[in-house]
Amino acid sequence: MTTPFISKREKNQADNKEQAQKQKEAHDKFNQAKKLMKSEIKVQKDIEKAIQFFSEAISLLQVASQEKVQTYAKYYSARGNAYMEHGQYQRALYDFSAAVRFDEGRADYYSCRGNCLLQLNQIKESLKEFNKAIELDCTDGFSYLNRALVFAKLEEYNNAIDDYSSALGLLKDNKQANAKFKAYFHRGNCYRQIKEYDKSIEDLQKACEIKKDNAPAQNNLGLSFFENQLYEQALAKFQNAINLDDSKATYYNNKALALYHIGKLKESLIEYNKAIDVDPLDARTLYNRGNTYLALGQNQDAHNDFDQAIQLNPGNPKFYHSKGLAFQDVEDYENAIIFSNKHQAIGNDRLVFESRGLVYQEMKNHDYAIYDFDAAIQLEPGYAEVYYYKGLSRIEQRNLQDAIENFNMAIKLGSNNPGIYSGIGQSYRLLRNYEKALYYLNQALEKSPGNEECLVQRSNIYVDIQKYQNAIDDLSEALSKRPNDPQILYKRGLAYYKYLQFEKAIKDLLNAMEGGPFQSYESDIHYHLGISFANLELFEKAIQPLSKAIQLCKYEAQYIHERAKCYLLVGEFEKSVEDFTRVIQLQPKNSHALFGRGFAFKALKEYEKAAEDFEQAKMLDPGNPKLVLTIINEGNEYCQNIPKKLLKILLIFFAIVKTFVASLLLSLSLFWIFGILLAFCAWKKVKNNVDVFGYYEGEEVQPLIVNVGDFCKLRKKFTEDQLVMFNSCSGDNNPVFVSELPGKKAFIRQTAVHNMLSNSIFSILIGKTFRDSVYINQNIRYRAPIFIEEEVQILQQQQKNIQNVKIEGYIEVLDVQEQENRKIIALRTIIYKLEYNNQVATDGEVKLIYYAPENIKLEQFIEQ
Question: In Å, how far are 185, 239, 249, 269, 581 from 220, measured between CA atoms?
Fold first, then answer.
């Protein structure tokens, strides 16, 4: 049978018809595949079906040879996207490469190929593809978005931020909300990496606004709050993430970390346990829980968690680091170093030496720490943080210029860590360059507003320059974020103490002790509690904390000295002698201790020992002008304080007058001789009865009290004549101060001395001891009235005839602030009623400005 003849034209028509049919089938398959890929509820099988349709379409297209090359590129690109979504990145790369061969001018094909390479971890190759895509089309926001991801992978965060910003400038269509979300989300994370937390928080908040139900966005926003030390805000965001997706162990872990940093350690453990329930093999959560156990003092539980973490991930050096810290916590330094060395054995990279250096730094072994930091720098010279750590160790070694150089190097390498500026500030503070110190601490707080550590460091500078209110404000702000931090409470307690706000100081110091401060702080806290009570004249309450301070530091002379003074003031003279003696054994040249023990011996009526101590104190510090003379009469009662030479002259004068009168009655020659003898005896009486407390003696220069704790006393009695004169001068004719009857009606029994008249005793004392001083302010509290004729009424029953009230004025230096040509001096002022067992009649405080005379060098009065 013969085949019918078919012309060439008929054959071409048949071929064209077949190709058209193949094209149609290819397009149909292609459209079916696209429909599957666009479905919002597609599953893996749908993607596999779509890949099959795309493959069939490509095969049919190859038969239809007249199809344009751009169509081939489109089909390969579509199948490449399906492979990408299916996770078959190598096959996807093949298809996108085919698309590029067919159509080299399409930017999106290069961009897609770049995404494949990025997924295959071929970072540098992917960067080339995105560069080509942007070269072909610089208006495509997606290309910038994709290249930014590559820069972030390469840790080139500033370049990544620039590309994300470019993408956001180009992605203006509301339909591109998902791309905008990615740009804000990832740019926020990049800002966090370079420690620009405010910008990071702003971007991530925008991402959360675009996708309110996105758990990763809430979690990452929480991380930015966390790293900015805004732990309460971080806690809220981590909880939002958990509410949106409670299947992620990471979210529970992060919430636990936030609780840990606000001091809620037990609540933190609960969250760690939830994280481990979700993922029992999460080594990082076990590591963090171990650190929490360590903070709670549950050392064995900490070791168990660290051991499990190491078993799950033996290559993480941080786990060995913390295991070493657990040994260090119980002072097992040998094992601590062993685990640090295991840490090093993991690998010879920067992190190994950096981590061990941090271990040594925490162990205060700064020589070893710096050795490891230097090794880390050699391995990775461009890593800024190691210079920062090295600078911290240099501060501890007091190698301050080198510390500043290391901090500046960290800044030069691009670090924005606010701790670097804080470190420079600390260095300048120790160099006593307070202006620069404040400048750099302010810089640190500009970069990280509210940073507690920076606030504490700045408060230290304010205390040094005696701006105590500024220091208190900084510490209060720090405590608003960490309200129970015992270290910050301790610092604020010291600031209140220096600011003479003793009640507030006591409150903070007690709270600090309850919170469990650093062990090295405990003795100082007890000491300042004690002297705060003492400054409030609660001497009995002062003794207990001072005793605790002494238990912790048995050989701290200052602590023992303060307790000795308290024992003296509460009348426990034997204990006072014992403490002063211990101080003298530790500091044989301590004239103040000898002076104090002399008082205690005098109270015990051991006058020879007292005189010996006073004389020795004077010998040790003969130029100290703060001391005055006290004269003892034959009955061992104090007389009014009078300069020594004047008293001698007066006594001799009266003795001569008495002799002269007697000589007139008898015989001139005999009684002149007798008068001379009497004068000689009077002089001897003065000489023998002068009780020198190591006081300053001189005609022109008056006593000058300049050291905290120095004090001076003056005894005074007010007469009825003085009261009448004061009434006349002041115009104050209050009947209480004029007549006995109104006094009885006012429940004070009799005529009282004017309050302001009685307080004139302080004017006398201050005028004698601070010659060129000016009052700033004075606070006075009236505890009990002072009467005229009081002593007569009390002592008449004992048949003694002593006239008028006898009181004692007392001033003591509380604080001295040095300025250029003057001192700001705070004094305690007290009036005691001697006939009422030293009852306090008046107490208060005085603040004055003292201008030093030109002929006095203040340095000579500063206690060494």
Answer: 8, 12, 14, 22, 64
Which residue type does 393 have? S
Q: 3-class DSSP state for residue 163? A: helix
Tell me whether residue 810 is exposed, middle or buried, using C-beta atoms within 10 angstroms of its C-beta: 0 to 12, 13 to 18, 19 or more: buried
- The rounded distance, in Å, linking the Cα atoms of 631 and 644 is 9
Sign, CA torsion 403/404/406/410: positive
What's the residue count for the chain? 864
The per-residue pLDDT for range 349-407, each reduced to its tens digit, is 676 678 778 767 877 788 888 988 998 899 888 888 999 999 999 999 999 999 999 99
User: 842 - beta bridge partners?
Assistant: 782, 831
In this predicted model, what pLDDT tens digit does every residue of 715-769 receive, in sequence order?
777 777 676 677 667 666 666 555 454 444 444 446 677 778 777 887 777 777 7
Q: Which residues pair with residue 782 across a beta bridge?
A: 842
Query: How far apart, in whole angstroms, are the C-alpha atoms of residue 548 and residue 554?
Result: 10
**Helical H runs in 570-667?**
573-586, 591-603, 607-620, 644-665
Residue 747 amino acid letter: F
State the Cα angle at 571 between 797 and 616, rounded to 5°. Answer: 110
Q: List the helix and strand counts (H, then E) for the chain.
A: 41, 7
| C-alpha to C-alpha distance for 339 and 334, rounded to whole angstroms | 9
Distance, in Å, from the CA atom of 347 to the CA atom of 351, rounded to the nearest integer, reads 9
- Classify burial at 448, counting beta carbons within 10 Å of its beta carbon; exposed 0-12, middle 13-18, buried 19 or more: buried
Which parts of the chain register pLDDT below 50? 626-648, 650-651, 666-672, 674-675, 678-705, 739, 741-749, 790-805, 854-864
Q: In what side-by-side order are the strands of the sheet with 807-818?
A: 711-716, 807-818, 822-833, 839-851, 773-782
* Cα–Cα nearest to 808, from 719, 738, 714, 732: 714
State the Cα–Cα distance between residues 511 and 490, nearest whole angstrom: 8
Domain boundaries, the chain: 246-346, 644-691, 711-861
Where would I find the beta strands (DSSP E) of 43-127? Answer: none
E runs forming strands in 424-492: none
pTM of the model: 0.45
Angle at 856 between CA 854 and CA 858, to 5 degrees: 110
Residues contacting 146, CB < 8 A, separation 6+? 111, 114, 115, 118, 130, 133
Q: First CA to last CA across the chain, in angstroms?
A: 133
307, containing H or E segment: helix 299-312
Query: So what's the pLDDT on residue 512?
Result: 92
Q: CATH for 246-346?
A: 1.25.40.10
Q: DSSP secondary structure string, 240-256? A: HHHHH-TT-HHHHHHHH
Segment 277-295, tens digit of pLDDT? 988 888 888 878 887 887 7
Alpha carbons within 13 A on the beta-carbon side of 326: 26
pLDDT of residue 637: 34
User: Collapsing DSSP states into helix, strand and coil, what is residue 16?
Assistant: helix
CA distance 335 to 18: 82
Which is it for the CA torsion 310, 314, 317, 321, positive or negative? positive
Degrees, nearest 5: CA angle 247-251-256: 125
Tokens of 13: 């028509």
Distance, C-alpha 175 to centroid of its chain: 49
Alpha-carbon gap, residue 269 to 267, rounded angstroms: 5
Q: Convert the pLDDT of each residue in 462-478 to its tens digit.
A: 999 999 999 999 999 99
Q: Is the domain 711-861 a CATH 3.10.129.10 member?
A: yes
Record the tokens describing residue 580, joined without a space: 């002063």
pLDDT at 436: 94
Q: Which residues contact 300 (CB under 8 A, 6 or more apart)?
A: none
User: Any idea which residue has 């809220």 for tokens?
Assistant: 236
DSSP-derived secondary structure for 829-864: EEEEEGGGTTEEEEEEEEEEEEEPPTT--GGGGS--
